[in-house]
Design brief:
heterodimer; A: 190 residues; alpha/beta; Glutaredoxin; 5-stranded mixed beta sheet; two-stranded antiparallel ribbon; 35% helix; globular; B: alpha/beta; 6-stranded mixed beta sheet; 7 strands; 21% strand
Chain lengths: 190, 160
């Protein structure tokens, strides 16, 4: 029994290790989200040559600190051809709440629900806000923060903008992995 | 003169609760390794939290209670706040009100990215997060996201 438990612990550590160090370069594959009326939407219908997938929340103060910055990102990069997929995977933030949050913050973009946090699991996303950038083949080219400070006055590195600029310019993304403090994605306890 | 003294005394009394709250000690990557080294010989749970993290605030009283019950057996709870400088006063107030044993730490690295990597390469930076170290200072388990106290306590008891 103890060996099985040890094995389970080792496997979970290995999975966590992959989650944090191996997602860039991986192709997570096709996935489906739900619009705020409950209809299914496939990722392929929302994706483009450069796609930014960003996990957000309604209640997380860190995610909310980025509301204006996310709107600015959308306004700056959507005209350049970047597709944005904003996702709420938190089990405790229903579609109606997400819709109210979207309206009250005047988001210029759509937000999708991720029922059962399937997409968060697929990408091994753990935090809000947490960003992934995919290229036209669906390969993850950037994973990490939007920028390096909750406080806009202390931002020194615009990780997501750098990644989008690099991909739009046909260059390589550097850094491709970044980290910042955020709220955990609220998963259903199994 | 007497009134001046009385005014000073009254001001000191009013300010006392704030001054009595110890400051949070800044910690960076090096400081983190030093605090782990200083606690070798104990089973240590490092809890990363922030005032903006509701689940962190919710679990803290339980962690404090558990620390009190296991302290005599060689357990130590270390708290590291991920609050920004402008949130530090709230962090001090919360730690005082929740009777969290000190010393209290607050992350103050040059780069949060490097700090998170130094604590654990597998960690995204999501809070709450706790890391469990054995008496030799070896990292034994991580708890990221909301975790039942019973799960954390069971892991600690195995190491005590």
């Amino acid at each position: 029994m103890r060996r099985i438990l040890n094995l389970a612990v080792c496997l979970s550590w290995a999975a966590a290790a992959w989650a944090q160090s191996g997602i860039v370069g991986a192709k997570p594959g096709e996935f489906t989200l739900q619009d705020l009326k409950g209809s299914s939407v496939s990722a392929s219908a929302l994706s483009g040559n450069v796609t930014a997938l960003i996990f957000i929340a309604t209640k997380c103060p860190v995610s909310n600190a980025y509301n204006e910055r996310m709107s600015a990102l959308y306004r700056d990069y959507e005209p350049k051809g970047v597709k944005f997929i904003f996702v709420n995977s938190n089990y405790n933030e229903p579609a109606a709440e997400v819709d109210e949050h979207r309206k009250s913050n005047a988001f210029p973009f759509a937000v999708y629900k991720d029922a059962g946090h399937v997409v968060a699991d697929l990408f091994h996303a753990n935090a809000t806000p947490e960003a992934f950038v995919l290229d036209s083949s669906g390969t993850v080219r950037y994973h990490g923060y939007i920028d390096d400070s909750q406080n806009p006055g202390r931002v020194t590195k615009q990780g997501l903008r750098l990644a989008l600029d690099a991909l739009l310019g046909g260059g390589s993304v550097n850094p491709a992995e970044t980290k910042a403090f955020g709220c955990s994605i609220k998963r259903i306890k199994r | 003169m007497i009134w001046n003294v009385r005014l000073l005394f009254a001001a000191a009394l009013l300010a006392a609760p704030l001054c009595a709250q110890p400051a949070l000690q800044p910690v960076n990557e090096t400081g983190y390794q030093e605090l782990l080294a200083a606690n070798k010989g104990k089973v240590v749970l490092v809890n990363f939290w922030a005032t903006w993290c509701q689940p962190c605030r919710a679990e803290m009283p339980q962690l404090v209670k558990m620390e009190a019950s296991l302290r005599a057996r060689g357990f130590k709870l270390v708290t590291v706040s991920a609050d920004e400088p402008e949130q530090e006063a709230f962090a001090r107030k919360f730690l005082t009100q929740t009777k969290v044993p000190g010393p209290w730490y607050v992350k103050r690295p040059k780069s949060d990215n490097a700090f998170i990597e130094a604590v654990d390469r597998r960690w995204s930076g999501a809070l709450p997060a706790s890391y469990l170290y054995d008496r030799t200072g070896r990292k034994r388990q991580m708890f990221v996201g909301e975790t039942a106290l019973a799960t954390i306590e069971a892991a600690i008891r195995k190491l005590l």
